[in-house]
Hints:
The protein is 22% helix and 29% strand. It has helices spanning 46-52, 70-73, 76-82, 106-114, 125-128, 197-201, 220-225, 229-239, 257-265; strands spanning 7-13, 27-32, 35-42, 62-64, 92-97, 136-141, 148-154, 158-166, 173-180, 183-187, 207-211, 243-247, 271-274, 280-281. The chain has a seven-stranded mixed beta sheet with strand order 6-5-4-3-2-1-14. A hairpin with a 2-residue loop joins strand 9 and strand 10 (183-187). Helix 8 (229-239) runs parallel beside helix 9. It starts with 6 loop residues before the first strand and ends with a strand.
Amino acid sequence: CAAPEGVTLQILGSGGPIADDARASSAYLVWLDGKSRVMVDVGGGAFLRFGEARAKFEDLDHIAISHFHTDHSADFVTLLKTGNFTERTRPLGVRGPAGGGPFPSLTDFLTSNVGKDGAYQYLSGYIDGTGGLVRLETVELYPSGDVVQAVRFMTDSDITITATGVPHGIVPAIAYRVRVGEKEIVFASDQNGNDERFIDFAKDVDVLVMHLVAPEGIQGSFRALHAPPGRIGEIASAAGAGKLVLSHLTRWSLPDLEENIAAVRRHYAGYIVLAEDLLCVLP
């Protein structure tokens, strides 16, 4: 995906939380002019795929975590460890949700992992930039869809990341819209699709990444967490997405994959990409 010019989305992990499909858990990279600039989610297996993609820790401007289920965040600290072995000195931006219920805030997540009394306290230099480690510039985001927050990076290029809360049961979850140059990609995160405001958030995006976790007709607590295929198609169509990437595939969506994609297509007539680990998508 490291094309010398332009923007490319790379899917590092296209799977879910169960180790039964040879897929890494959720993780995505946005490449610009041959450099891995933005990473969204760092689920289990992302560390391996990051290396296979030949991405570089020192090129990252920003890591955005959608929520603190393990299949979206578990390899974050492992990825930080690789930063020990680079010559990077500039800070690394990290964004994630504020906490709620049994789920930590971004600050608590980092403190419990790499704080001075954390599980991996030998990496505590990431908190304050000491010990030869780069400082993490962290901001917690509101998990409510009532608020849209923007983060702007002014480096050698202009990268803007906009964030909004999305409904994912009791889990504080954030969707991200990444603008690099003239291209925009929306990462919908895990969500049940019930908040109509997300459609406005994703309006006219070049690429919309949504998670095809469950089959059509899901009910109960599973429906409170995840949008069924038909709803995914409705959202993509209403948003006017140029391309729709179906990712986060699981044992519930893979067996009847053709039927699930057909349910999406009943509502969305645009270009559909079925995610695979390390697949590259041009916006």
